[in-house]
Amino acid sequence: MSVSDSGSATYSEALEGSNAKRGLWSSRLAFILAATGSAVGLGNIWKFPYITGENGGGAFVLVYLLCIAAVGLPIMMAEVLIGRRGGHSPVNSLRLIAERDRLKPAWRMVGAVGVLAGFLILSFYSVIGGWAVSYVGTAASGQLVGQSAEAVGAIFSNLLGDPMTLLLWHTVFMALVMLVVAKGVRAGLERAVSILMPGLFVLLLIAVGYAMTSGEFGRAVSFLFQPDFSKLSTSGILVALGHAFFTLSLGMAVMMAYGSYLPKNVSIAKTSIAVSVIDTGVALLAGLAIFPIVFANGLEPGAGPGLIFQTLPLAFGQMPMGSLFGTLFFVLLIFAAWTSGISLLEPIVEWLEERKGLNRTASTLGAGVVCWALGIASILSLNLWSDFAPLGSIAMFEGKTIFDLLDFFTANILLPLGGLLVAVFAGWVMSREAVEKELALSGPMFRLWYLTIRYFTPVAVAAVFIYNLM
Ligand code: PFF
After folding, report:
1. Can you say where in the cell this protein is located (predicted)?
2. For the chain, percent helix, then strand, then coil, each to nearest 5?
3. Residue 210 CA neighbour count, 13 Å, CB half
4. What is the value of pTM for the model shown?
5. d(CA 50, CA 309)
6. Closest Cα partner for 139 from 382, 331, 336, 335?
7. Which band of pLDDT confidence, cut at 50, 70 and 90, is reported for residue 105?
8. All structural domains of the chain
9. What are phi and psi of 352, to 5 degrees?
10. d(C-alpha 356, C-alpha 403), whole Å
11. For residues 433 and 456, what is the distance between their CA atoms, to the nearest angstrom?
12. SS3 of 112, please?
């Protein structure tokens, strides 16, 4: 599904060529599956529960849901519509639309932000993907059966303390991602998403069912859904906003790339809503599966990035057929992370192909290996360098390891920045007619979206930024 348009095509040449050269998604469902494959990943199951725990629960969840609905969804629609309008890879789409409207091609920056963000995110994403790979073996070998919370915690600490094992699983995960991107066999994966995503959903439901019967479910529900604003800090608001971008794969032009393959007659609003609802549903289910176990076992909700690896294995160790369910769960988690990882690497590879004229294999190898090497810094942050805080002298970054900094800088700065640029592009740079035609919404709905993307979204993102920097 790669596109290699020559960088020098004029708008009309490119537009004429585009429909003949590029296949479109076979249906609305195919797009939803691919976009969901990118959106649903470690962000939903690994990151959402732990940042919710760190930021005090309900109030954070409420702000996160607001960010999804009022910022994330409108920006997803903007990305998809820019992609479909341009009909090319993100960088070329932006350039073409901006050129046609006689505006500066400075919008390449959006592509550049995307490439940089993808690169940095994938480096640590692959390390966490590696944790999931490691837990397949842990669950399958029956090591979790009947274990106490302490023993399950010790299994996790042992993994983090062992750089060579982490490196091994990080390598395996990165190789899986590179393999698919190099071969360009996304079509097969999209079919797989349609089976495996529902599978992940069912296993999460089983975990929630276990949590309902054996954990402190009521306490978890009030923790997640009863807002207590005294527990939410301003930095928590930034984290919620950043996570809305991260979890929906926004701000790095992934949805723009996918939108370029969307048939013209498909509703951008409906498909974007579907993707956002599925993504949010998976995150909330993960929360409902994890927190009852946290409370029932006296664990710490703010335990940090290890939270799901210290709670779910405990549940799998105690439920009937737990080794089987646990193994399946981690396999499906790898798969969810894999499809997201592919969407992180793909834009970099396309960019290298288009800009540097490298072929797909060379681009994938080059980008993948550099990303893998950067991942080693995240691995070391978990053990040998766990006390090393490179920007520790700045109050905001006190105690943050390289891994923490990469996560913070990408999710909370780069992605919202990319999203801000997308909003400004759709709201102010593109012509209103073009935008209106692509979205094909009813009058009032269009006006609501247009006002949001022109004023509310840019102001909200800028305000959260400025407030946090001060
Ligand atoms: N949305 C993915 C997740 O929640 O795990 C992560 C991600 C993928 C972020 C692709 C950004 C992106 F472009």
Report:
1. Membrane
2. 80, 0, 20
3. 25
4. 0.92
5. 10
6. 331
7. low
8. 28-387 (1.10.4160.10)
9. -65, -40
10. 29
11. 20
12. helix
Total residue count of the chain as it appears in this document: 470
- In 141-266, alpha helices (H): 149-160, 163-183, 186-214, 217-225, 234-247, 254-259
Measured CA to CA, the distance from residue 239 to residue 63 in angstroms comes to 10
Q: What type of residue sits at position 378?
A: S
Q: What is the pLDDT of residue 363?
A: 93
CA distance 344 to 199: 23
Query: Cα of 41 to ligand 1 centre, how many Å?
Result: 7
Task: Return the C-alpha torsion angle 369, 373, 374, 375, nearest 10.
Answer: 100
Dist. CA 239 → ligand 1 center (Å): 15
What is the residue whose two structure tokens read 């990882």?
Answer: 341
The first and second tokens of residue 408, run together, are 């913070």
Task: Specify the residue for token string 């698919």.
Answer: 180
pLDDT at 42 (0 to 100):
97
Average pLDDT taken over every residue of the chain: 89
Q: Which of 417, 411, 415, 401 is nearest to 125 (CA)?
A: 411
CA angle 333, 257, 80 (to 5 degrees): 95
Token duo for residue 34 = 């691919």
Ligand 1 within 6 A of 119 CB? Answer: no
The rounded distance, in Å, linking the Cα atoms of 151 and 155 is 6
* Nearest CA, atom 11, ligand 1: 249
* 247 ligand 1 Cβ < 6 A: yes
116 C-alpha to center of ligand 1: Å? 14
Cβ of 368 less than 6 Å from ligand 1: no
Task: Give the pLDDT confidence of 305-321 residue by residue, as tens digits.
Answer: 999 999 999 999 998 88
User: Chain centroid to CA 429: how far?
Assistant: 27
For the residues 201-212, what does the mean pLDDT come to? 92
Tell me: the pLDDT tens digits for 415-464?
999 999 999 999 998 889 999 999 999 999 999 999 999 999 999 999 88
Identify the band that residue 12 occupies on the pLDDT scale cut at 50, 70 and 90: very low
Residue 314 in contact with residue 291, Cβ under 8 Å? no
What is the CB neighbour count within 10 angstroms for residue 397?
16
378 vs 234 pLDDT, higher one: 378
Cα–Cα distance, 368 to 174 (Å, whole number) = 7
Q: According to the model, what pLDDT value does residue 102 have?
A: 57
Residues 6+ away with beta carbon under 8 Å from 89? 3, 5, 257, 260, 350, 351, 354
Residue 208: count other Cβ atoms within 10 Å of its Cβ: 22
Amino acid at 289: A
